[in-house]
């Protein structure tokens, strides 16, 4: 059968006798790597490269799509690198790499992608192998970041929705077991943004793929999210010469006013809004009048700026997507309020000439009903993942300028309601942490360095009883340089707890903050 299901496709024939002979003769790691290709058979796959890479080498990626912005990677550990193409249908396939470290700990790690990206996250693969994980990454079933590959090719959308990560998990595990001559002990997944959604998709559709999942800032409710992106552009306007357009300078004024109104709600004034869900700014204070003539908003600017902090709804008031959380407006004004929702162009309408200026509620309804290959990833039933013993750690920056953090709380509550669980009961396998002062996956004024890619720090290892974290400790370095001075630390609370300054230590000391319901 041509292109059978991935579970049957991942058939590997490995010459165990040859392996045993080589091991008995003291074959080196390098030689085992170099002989891997001749002993490895994967159906519907073309092996493009097998190479031994010593630590501190610089790998070059001359064929990587330029939009991936990744031309090289310094490798931290001795690895055996395998690159292959796996056909997933007659019109689609996945570029996959497996990095197998010399100092293997018996654990397997799969990495995700970002945005519409068809780019292997080589930095995550390097991090995984530096910790002794056999690590796999894929190109998400297409190359580059434009999303153009979705046009008139539903199988590419299928790989983007779920196929690429599942293919990588199945084949990556098989390669791992074959290379080392024994089975992996535990399997994990890390990803943020689209990678976060991919983690949830794995938990929902393939609950046995991973023992532990770290999913950050996920693009959940995907078609509504992309519609919201277009709606924000319509609300704020595309014509920068329009008198109602809110300039970057005015967004700075708005940001300062929001901090003035909401920063102290957590008991401390430190430039970080710990609980943006409590913040409902009154921007009318900035309305221009005879006394306030500079750094102020005219009526149309006021309407547009305030609209960003309102939920996106249908005409009957039912929710499409939550509001943008206050505090993120500086970065959002630079990136989001004039963007085009590419998935609508290629995956929904199949028309490159379509413009977000033409977005209607009918478009939103159509995309939601289409929901190609379950791309929305909005299933609140994680009971199979829980039954398999899986653990899921979910995080989201509260200053995320691309995806409202309120959507993560919305999904958590969907799971709680669907499974009829209290938050205490959900804690047994699913914990959601809100990271104050963190932008989209990283950066920001807060203690955002939480070890996003560090499985060892996140505490999701099912082998360790009682290892699930009550809080996640974050760090903020000067200039975001881990070699520089630590400016502040903070223990970020798991939802639904909220952080509040209780003293008596300085604001920068995490001991001064308490998680409260």
TrEMBL record:
Family designation: Belongs to the tannase family.
SUPFAM superfamilies: alpha/beta-Hydrolases
Keywords: Calcium, Carbohydrate metabolism, Disulfide bond, Hydrolase, Metal-binding, Polysaccharide degradation, Serine esterase, Signal, Xylan degradation
Matches recorded under PANTHER family: FERULOYL ESTERASE B-RELATED (PTHR33938:SF15)
Pfam families linked to this entry: Tannase (PF07519)
Signal peptide extent: 1-26
Reactions catalysed according to its record: feruloyl-polysaccharide + H2O = ferulate + polysaccharide
EC assignment: 3.1.1.-
Designated name of the protein: Carboxylic ester hydrolase
Statement: the UniProt record of this protein carries the keyword Transport: no
A GO MF term: feruloyl esterase activity
Gene Ontology biological-process entries: xylan catabolic process
Keyword Metal-binding (UniProt): yes
